[in-house]
Amino acid sequence: MTIASTTLPPGVYKLDGRLYAVKDSRRYSGKQDVKRLEVRNGKLHRRPVTPTTIDRLTPDLHITLEDAVAFGERHHFCCMCGRKLTAANSIAEAIGPVCKKNLRKATAA
């Protein structure tokens, strides 16, 4: 588990071609859980990251809809929630409808 005292909005960030998921920790108040997203053998894994990587993440590195779609097309997983894309519409768009809406809100702000 990689816990950080960051001030990033929860979401997915792209740094050096890799995607990182940031979410508020359920266990530690005021902390965030940061993981690197990696797909191996058809499964999505969330890997721990180093404090140096966490320090390099900034709000302007939040992924775009195009980045999320590219990840979904390549791996058949939604990079926002980690679910396997199974519905025909989600597979065609390479992202689920709820995550697409949430990502648009996050990038518009």
Summary keywords:
109 residues; alpha+beta; 5-stranded antiparallel sheet; 4 helices; 5 strands; globular
SS element count, helices: 4
Q: State which percent range the strand residues make up.
A: 25-35%
Using only CA atoms, what is the Rg? 14 Å
Sheet of most strands: 5 strands, antiparallel
Instruction: Determine the N-to-C terminus distance.
Output: 29 Å
**What string gives the helices and strands in order?**
EEEEEHHHH
Q: Pairing-aware structural class of the strands and helices?
A: alpha+beta
Tally of extended strands?
5
Q: What's the average pLDDT?
A: 87
Molecular shape: globular
Uncertain stretches of 5 or more adjacent residues: none
Query: Percent range for helical residues?
Result: 25-40%
How is this structure best described in words?
With 109 residues, this protein is α+β, with helices and mostly antiparallel strands. The protein is 32% helix and 27% strand. The protein contains four helices and five strands, in the order βββββαααα. Strands 1, 2, 3, 4 and 5 form a five-stranded antiparallel β-sheet that branches. A hairpin with a 7-residue loop joins β3 (18-24) and β4. The chain is globular and about 40 Å long.
